[in-house]
Amino acid sequence: MKIALDPYMIRSTPLLELPAVVAELGYEWIELSPREDFIPFFRHPRVDDGTVARFRKALEGAGVGISSVLPLFRWSGPDEDARQAAVRYWKRAILISADLGVTSMISEFNGRPEDPDRSEAQFWKSMDELLPLFEREGIHLALEPHPDDFIENGYDAINFIRGINHPNVGFLYCAPHTFHIGNDAPGIIEYAGDLLTHVHLADAFDHTASSGNRYILNPPGTPARIHQHLNMGEGEVDFGELFLELNAVGFDGTLTACVFAWEEKAKESSVFMREKIGEYLADWK
Questions:
Q1: pLDDT 10s digits, 216-233
Q2: Of residues 142, 158, 145, the one with CA closest to residue 190
Q3: pLDDT (tens digit, 9 = 90+) per residue, 24-65?
Q4: I need a surface site. Which of 85, 159, 184, 223 has the fewest CB within 10 A?
Q5: Beta-carbon contacts of residue 217 (< 8 Å; ≥ 6 apart)
Q6: pTM check: above 0.90
Q7: Peptide bond into 132 cis (omega under 30)
């Protein structure tokens, strides 16, 4: 099993210094999320081959590996020009990941929840182009349902991934999205079975509580989604039942600390999360 850190809260750390900082925080693995000097949100990667080689050397020197690379592109949106651009960005991101020796990438379904049929059709067009490249480079893709994607429910996402019917594509369970994707971590984890390869760990409050009045959003009826990525124990996700089910299914993938809420105390949060994950794993058989 890999215990990884999503270093988004310390993204101002220069890329080549990042491995050493992550090692100081006690992690052996990085889940590399979007950053402006590497692969930014929704735009073409910014890194060249020489920097990739230097980054790989820095990783080796720090004794830290990349568990996975997480790009976010508009590969299933209704706009065809944007979709084609996203596929172009994906192709470069896959090659960068392969050059780093990475065998796992993560992403979201993207698309639009108000136009799921068009979004699904766009997704399949993108996958037709990208799956051969994932195969060629030996990279596994884990997909997660995300608030405001064309697939938001965990069970629906698993069924969709089964429909892709490809050994290089699996499922990611994101704990801070628990209350958007079905509020049933044990059931979704069990249902996913061997498709589950990654778990994101952070806490969130149940936005559906108090008859949906936990948060007041204006204007009334807005389709905006809300959630948090807090330290474990600061919200309402039941991590006891989540880890119990992971143990029951024999999970042996990647657990990633992905707290985004505390940039002013990012190092303390990262150390806390590593220790908290270790406490839950200590009870495993």
A1: 777 877 888 888 889 999
A2: 158
A3: 999 999 999 999 999 999 999 999 999 999 999 999 999 999
A4: 223
A5: 224, 226
A6: yes
A7: no
